[in-house]
Amino acid sequence: MALIPRPKQMELFPAETPARGYTATNAGPWAERRLSPRSLGPLAVNARQADGLFYAVLSASASAHLPELPAALCGAGREDGYFLEARADGVCILSRHPRGVVYGLHAYEELLAENGSFCGTVIDFSDASFRAFHMDMRYGFPRTERLLEILEELSAARFSTFLLEYENRFPFTRHADVSDPAHYSPEDLRRIQEKAAELYIEIIPLQQTIGHLEYLLKLPAYYPLREMREFPSTPAPYGFSPTGWKHFNDIDEICASREEAYAVVESLLDDVMAAHPASRYVHLGCDEAWNLLSCPECRARFGEDGRHRLYISHINRMAARVLAAGKIPIVWDDMLRGFSDEELAQIDRRVVIMIWLYYESNYALAKRLARRFRAAGFTVLGAAAAKCGEGPEPQYLDMPWYELRLGNVDMWGRLCGEEGLDGFCMTVWSNYSGTIAPPHPFFDTVWYPVLFAAEKLWNRDAVREGFDSRFSSAFFGVEQEDLFHGGSAQRYERIVRVCRGAARHRYEAEVLRVMELLSAYRLKSQAVGRELYKLSMDVTEAEKRIVRNRMAEVAALREELKPQVRRIVETHYTKADAEVFVRSRFEADEALFRLYAASGGRGEEMPADGRPGGF
Ligand SMILES: [Zn+2]
Question: Are 422 and 471 in contact (CB under 8 A)?
């Protein structure tokens, strides 16, 4: 069975359920809309019999009898589990939480899609109560309609929580000049929250408050509020990080000694909190503020060794503001990793600490940190990544490094079980650092690791072996072994097959096809880049011709890819986003090729069939 997540218990009966019937639900408008195409009319359900439970019923007769809730769903932590019973006289879904009814309806529809019919029972519940998905809008601004679709996808994958990082795509009020020209309107925010509420997905807005404020500090009006008064320089003679020393920019942190900076940051935070009245939590970010205590005022105020004092002061100030608004603050953990017990004791215990560690090899560190923060009295949650900075390896600039990503999810699933954590958040980072960095792999390349996280959160003993075949069946409706394994030519061949046969998620299949090809282009382009010098040297014409032919092959692939990449991005994002993505992938290569073509004389004609060669 391809269902993701896999149900805990299932029994099949040899019969057919009615296609239409009398219907009833108390699980809200989404469940009502799902039932309505099958409805012959309303069904009366005895409130006493429902006994505080939530249900969706389709019955062949005008009166229905609700089944008992199985004992397996009565314990703590099983609130949004569901019982699905499909018999010849009707279908009933029962849960202690309306979200469970939504999951039951998803499961029933998935079983129908897979088998054509379903008659039997399913008893299903999650091993983790906090099943979160994160996305940021540092690069890329999905249209509201797309975000609503993403919410439906998350619900189908049984995610309970959406950590939403707007960056400058939010309609700020007092500092409206901070908002990007393309940003969500208050009406967009209302629609997004309405959809999330229908699906019982809790939105946690993320508003950065000290570091990762590039979108603010890059603007001339706010540049004076930065902490770094001098551009951060690499320690002599050079640093070995491929992306630069520390944060490699001077516009990351605000100065914690300037009330003008706090006035702005608190106004942005207040706007975000006010726009999310139903959200119980607010994520304050506070990660990777590496350059704190760089300015003379901060050093004078907090002392030459006062980085931790500064950070504690900041966290407590922001936490107090969030708590005063009746919400619970969350922060990333990385800045707290070197804190002593005495220092941790000075932080408000109501702050939730979210540990982000993105590799399987981080297991021991994650365990140590989880124990330490919990011993200090904090609630702790985890965070894995579906894509993040894998370094400059060219093949992972356009596709996530799936083996690492699934290993990372495995690690968090294991740790949640061992340490009794409520769950983890699957982060999806759009670029490396703030609005100023080039885009990571395109958003829709992440569904494979994201659905593995969904599976692992729901079923802690889920394994990654064979998951790509299950993913292909469940997500695309195509049976395909080893979809993401093997060499790039093999993977490309398989994804082409999936594109042709996909019963659903055809757009996402096409994204994978184009981005797999783009990865191949990246490697080829880099390889030929190493030979370009020959065109400006005194080598034989035969040698130059080899280089020119390789350039022609890469150039042909580039011209084939450019419009495809643009079309994919423009489908759900703005034209400006598409322009940025295309330029980030092709512009420098093109310029280099032009430069060397000019120095090396006339380029060679393309091969007669005009097709790029193999990769
Ligand atoms: Zn300062």
Answer: no
Any alpha helices (H) in 483-574, and if so which ranges? 488-501, 506-529, 541-572
Overall number of domains in the chain: 3
Say whether both 369 and 415 belong to one domain.
yes
Compute the distance from residue 170 Cα to the ligand 1 centre, in Å. Answer: 27
Ligand 1 centre from 258 Cα, in Å? 7
Percent of the chain residues past pLDDT 70, beyond the cut: 95
* 3-state class (DSSP) for residue 448: helix
pLDDT band at 229 (very low <50, low <70, confident <90, very high): confident
Determine the distance separating the centroid of ligand 1 and the alpha carbon of 365, expressed in angstroms.
31
Looking only at the bridges linking them, the beta strands covering 54-59 and 21-25 are: antiparallel
pLDDT digit string, tens, across residues 9-62: 999 999 889 999 999 999 999 999 999 999 999 998 877 778 899 999 999 998
- Same domain? 143 vs 57: no
Residue at 487 is within a domain: no
- DSSP-assigned letter for residue 239: -
Ligand 1 centroid – CA 260 distance (Å) = 12
Whole-prediction pTM: 0.95
308 CA to middle of ligand 1, Å?
Answer: 13
CA 531, 535, 537, 539 dihedral sign is positive
Same domain flag for 120 and 143: no
Q: Which CATH number does the domain housing residue 234 bear?
A: 3.20.20.80
270 Cα: distance to centroid of ligand 1 (angstroms): 23
What residue numbers bound the domain in which 100 lies?
9-124
